[in-house]
């Protein structure tokens, strides 16, 4: 008789699927299921953190939707009541990221990150380690988003934050050391093409952007790649931090290029590897501390740190995306062109003289159809590991800069604006071509 009454009581049950905000790992699934399963009107609950959904048999006569939402909220998640919430949040996040990026572009922060000390011939191992320590601030600025994303992913997936960050930094050190050994053995600097450098930065920016959207509950986007590869690159696998660190070591980086030149000067694979090892070890303390602190905060203050981490990762992703696009010849402008160095017309040639500044590249104005001789004067203290090589994609030019006068010659036939950048995509300049 009791069983019959129980069966009759379930006549009003129906299967429902709700969208749950804040789930980022399998542990989140368990927490949500445990919270709602304690309610009398919920049976056979199952959650999917990748889709952000909860499905269960629900008896609305026994448990109201408000009670269900309250139970989910107590577990630290949110029952989304409107289907447009996620789309609205995604648009809001993207607009906020663009706004923050514009603010970043209009401040000297980007230029400050491009100025860092570089290795010089004759430095000892202790000096190289100290150089890594001073350069690590640049590493945090350039790769901090990747570090933050993998650290946040590890914390929210229930993995040990310390071990995850050790794996990430181990991957970076191994990658740098192997590169140093190869450079020393081959006797030549490994130089990636503009297209490859741009591709690496764009792919990294996309991965960081997807991670940011996930952290901010702003989209259920996923990449069309194998599950194993996605697990490694998106921070879901057991050793994903190690893989991220190994790939991170291939990122276009000024200090890395300077250290490649130093490894080249050693003329030995083991000296090159050891030099890069000491330098990379110097970058570990600050990068490791940054990852550990952010990971611990993610565990102690899950919701606010999830928002902060997602916002920072998104801003860095947008900045890295614009760097990659600049290397590919596509520049997203913030503001107009500033003061320009104008060409002086001489017989059959036009002459432009500019001074190199570590904060930006000069803008110049020339005329179409007349050969240009552009002299860029560089003081030793104005050359950094970032601005020491200009890339002009439209003219297919890479121009290394050294102390003294550097002469660049080219001819442009059609009027327009040609953007150029440093080899890292961080500093920008323009060539305005007039009729």
| Low-confidence segments | 1-9, 220-227, 229-235
Q: Which range does the strand content fall in?
A: 15-25%
Tally the helices: what do you get? Answer: 13
Largest sheet: 6 strands, mixed
> What is the succession of H and E elements?
HEHEEHEHHHHHHHHHHEEEEEEEEEE
Terminal CA distance reads 95 Å
- The proportion of residues forming helix, as a percent range, comes to 40-55%
Widest sheet, order of strands = 5-8-14-13-10-11
Summing up helix and strand content along with how strands pair, one would put the structural category as alpha+beta
What report would you give on this structure?
With about 425 residues, this protein is α+β, with helices and mostly antiparallel strands. It contains 13 helices and 14 strands. It has three domains: about 10-80, Alpha-Beta Plaits (2-Layer Sandwich); about 85-325, no CATH class; about 340-435, Cupredoxins -  blue copper proteins (Immunoglobulin-like, Sandwich), CATH 2.60.40. Helices cover about 50% and strands about 20% of the residues. The chain has a six-stranded mixed beta sheet, with no helix packed on it. The chain has a four-stranded antiparallel beta sheet with strand order 2-3-1-4. Helix 6 (about 125-155) packs across helix 7 (about 160-185), helix 6 (about 125-155) packs across helix 8 (about 195-215) and helix 12 runs antiparallel to helix 13 (about 300-325). The protein is globular and about 90 Å long. It starts with a helix and ends with a strand. About 40% of the residues are buried.
